[in-house]
Amino acid sequence: MAELHIVVCVKIVPKPEEILVDPETHLLQRVDTRSEINPPDMNAMEMALSLKDRYGGRISLLSMGPTYFEPNLRVALAMGADHIYLLSDPQFAGADTLATTYTLAEGVRKIGGVDLILCGEESSDGATGQVPPGLAEWLGSSQLTLLTEVSIDQDKRLARGRREIKGGYEVLEVPLPCVISVKTACNEPRFMDFSLRSWAEERDRITIWDADSLATEPDHIGLPGSPTVVTGLAEAPYRDRRREFLTGTQDEIAQELAEILKRSL
Amino acid sequence: MVASLYGAAQESKSIWVYLEVDRGGLTGVSKELITKGRQICDQLGWQLSGLLLGHHLQPFAAEGFAHGIDTLWLADDPRLENFTIEAYTTVAYDALMEVKPSVLLMGATPNSRDLAGRLAVRLRTGLNADCTDLYLDPETERLVCEVSGFGGGVLAFIEMAEHRPQMATVRPGVFTPGEVDRDRVGVIIEIEVNLDPEILTTNLVERSVGEQVDLTSVPVLVTGGRGVDGDFKMLAQLAELLGGEIGATRPPVDEGHIERERQIGQTGVVCSPKVAICCGISGAFHFVVGIEKADVVVAINSDPEALIFDYADYCIVGDVHQIVPALIEALTVEREVILG
Ligand SMILES: Cc1cc2nc3c(=O)[nH]c(=O)nc-3n(C[C@H](O)[C@H](O)[C@H](O)COP(=O)(O)OP(=O)(O)OC[C@H]3O[C@@H](n4cnc5c(N)ncnc54)[C@H](O)[C@@H]3O)c2cc1C
Ligand SMILES: Cc1cc2nc3c(=O)[nH]c(=O)nc-3n(C[C@H](O)[C@H](O)[C@H](O)COP(=O)(O)OP(=O)(O)OC[C@H]3O[C@@H](n4cnc5c(N)ncnc54)[C@H](O)[C@@H]3O)c2cc1C
Question: For the segment B47-75, what is each residue's pLDDT rounded down to a tens digit?
Fold first, then answer.
């Protein structure tokens, strides 16, 4: 039986505090180029690592983005993964989720022999949650989303997962290969293993593929491959509130607030 | 550019709304989308259709018509009793390819987000997530999706030139459901369900659903942010006294202090309570859109400069861990006086 091969999709995102919007032009200003691993992807990493602890096998990290994401990816590698695949090409830039999922799917195909593809629930910047189902569709694989737990039957080649739903949960079983999105905060991501730090810095730990090496269709990637187009920007309407500050001792404030609440209900 | 399976030239000028049923009725967001779709269709004399997949769902047709649908495309089949991604994607895809509507609107619920993400790729079209408003440009007859971009109060407008259907998801509570006309009638069209057993690979082993909360329509919403330090018990006590529910900003949800379904804001629930009380919340734009529709907003924050005070009617500078217990005390005493 072949060993379990897990791909974890990792998006590198700008730190929220690094994003500023120019009040005049409404354009994004990146104050710095400091980035981080999309926090929900750490939960996907942890799920992959615990599967590896349990069943053995190996973990490949897959990311689409510029090469300056490399240091962040090496940190994730040192958590206990085996290799990094970075899909990087100026032609990939400006991708919406259709082009992103196509490109990631081509990456998964080229890696080859993949049983599970783990994603975060959603990214902290785009936050569409559209990548996991879109990726599954391009790959023609099964999908399980919002999982808090997963187990694998390697003989029957099945994945069984517990999915969070409104007010409860469901347990679903699907054939491998399978794309999974992992519920944010469902586990405690481990720290990087410091003994792996220098190993993770070695040159051949990472494979970088551009559009040519992936043999992607030029009209499927980046901006040209993205149907959604931003056609305008505007300032959000602002609802004016009273902005009345309550003052006095704590008890006076509490009394006054209780009165206000009574009146308002 | 990669072409969608049908383009603007082949579209039938109509809007489709994907409908969901929950606890014996159409979900709130389904009705909200019907109302929005109706407004747009009336502007241009277009047809509004509903798409409903499941089993034994005929009784919900009337509700759809009463809210404004002209035609209901209904797939009624035992294999659609439970949501499974392969069956739902296949049946929805077949129906869409038969009619080729211009627009497909879906609620941003977990199942619909999954379905939307998969359908958009199968149809090779674009999908706009979490739209805050929708318009139809009368000249180009294109859908214009309004989304709130990064932080600071910026709206972006997104369109698709040639790709069809123009797909968009909308969070529950963003639109307001309109008038109901019980006498309104419509047409039901049964969708032929063709499912190859080979593709039906998802096996539902177990499901357990308990109490569910619908925060979009509660009268009082007590929300906590990072500043409450995970003490949602205290907030729940206040909410109970006021006959309301608790909600939260994203950080406490991400940290696991409270369920995701109680997250308020752009990627959570948009609420319209009489009163929203914001405790230990800084007032990030992503959050504020979730309480903008409240009649009255109260904010408690230890930082007098906190942005949340710009969005509040009543502002209290102080420690939530002191103000909230004092408020609970004041409300309890008053209650006792009334009761006594
Ligand atoms: C504010 C904003 C709004 C946007 N709205 C839309 C929209 O409505 N429609 C649209 O088509 N595009 C939209 N985009 C573009 C979209 O963010 C990109 O297409 C992005 O590459 C992937 O989508 P996501 O960030 O929403 O991922 P999500 O689907 O939220 O991410 C889920 C998971 O997929 C994986 N993943 C996502 N991106 C990558 C990557 N680059 N490399 C490796 N793994 C990845 C990660 O595991 C991640 O946790 C938006 C972008 C921004 C900044
Ligand atoms: C694409 C995207 C989507 C997002 N969607 C959402 C969303 O739907 N909902 C959402 O909420 N967020 C969302 N966010 C996150 C959002 O930008 C903010 O980061 C978040 O709302 C901040 O939460 P907070 O106010 O609780 O925390 P903070 O910003 O950390 O604020 C904590 C506040 O508590 C105050 N405080 C601390 N201690 C006390 C005390 N003892 N007493 C009183 N006050 C105290 C502090 O002064 C501070 O103002 C989104 C972000 C992105 C990028």
Answer: 999 999 999 998 899 999 999 999 999 99
Contact of B208 with chain A, judged by CB distance below 8 Å, is answered with: yes
Q: Which residues of B touch A226 (CB under 8 A)?
A: 126
The pLDDT value recorded for residue B143 is 97
- pLDDT of res. A167: 81
Alpha-carbon dihedral sign for residues B14, B18, B24, B25: negative
Distances (CA, A) of B315 to A162, A199, B248, B277, B278: 43, 54, 18, 10, 10
Q: Read off the pLDDT band of A17 (50, 70, 90).
A: low
Calculate what percentage of chain B has a pLDDT beyond 70.
97
Pocket test for ligand 1, best of A46, A104, A106, A130 (most atoms within 8 A of CB): A130
DSSP E strands in B28-83: the ranges are 47-54, 71-76
- Nearest-CB residue to B153 (from A96, A185, A236): A236
CA distance B333 to B102: 59
Please give the ipTM for the structure prediction.
Answer: 0.93
Name which residue sits closest to atom 9 of ligand 1, judged by CA: B128
Domains of chain A, first to last: 5-220 (3.40.50.620)
**Reported confidence tier of residue B152, pLDDT bands at 50, 70, 90:** low
Q: What is the mean pLDDT of residues B197-219?
A: 90
Instruction: Report the percentage of chain A scoring pLDDT > 90.
Output: 82
The amino acid at residue A168 is G
Contacts of A253 (CB under 8 A, 6+ apart): A246, A247, B316, B318, B323, B326
Give pLDDT tens digits for A33-42.
Answer: 589 999 999 9
Angle among Cα B322, B323, B329 to the nearest 5 degrees reads 95
**Cα-to-centroid distance, B157 and ligand 1 (Å):** 17
User: Which of B202, B234, B305 should one mutate to test binding to chain A, selecting the residue with the greatest count of A CBs within 10 A?
Assistant: B202
Query: Whole-angstrom Cα distance, residue B160 to residue B165?
Result: 9
User: Which is the CATH superfamily of the domain at B6-199?
Assistant: HUPs (3.40.50.620)
- DSSP code of residue B27: -
DSSP bridge pairs for A172: A161, B204
What would the pLDDT profile of A85-96 be if each residue is shown by its tens digit? 999 999 999 999
What is the CATH architecture of B215-339? 3-Layer(aba) Sandwich (3.40)
Distance CA A28, CA A253 (A): 41
Residue extents of the structural domains in chain B: 6-199, 215-339
List the beta strands (DSSP E) in chain B. 6-7, 12-19, 21-22, 25-26, 47-54, 71-76, 101-107, 127-128, 133-136, 143-148, 154-159, 163-164, 166-170, 187-190, 203-209, 220-224, 245-248, 275-279, 296-301, 314-317
Say if B120 is an interface residue toward chain A (CB within 8 Å): yes
The number of beta carbons lying within 10 Å of the beta carbon of residue B200 is 13
**Residue B95 pLDDT > 80:** yes
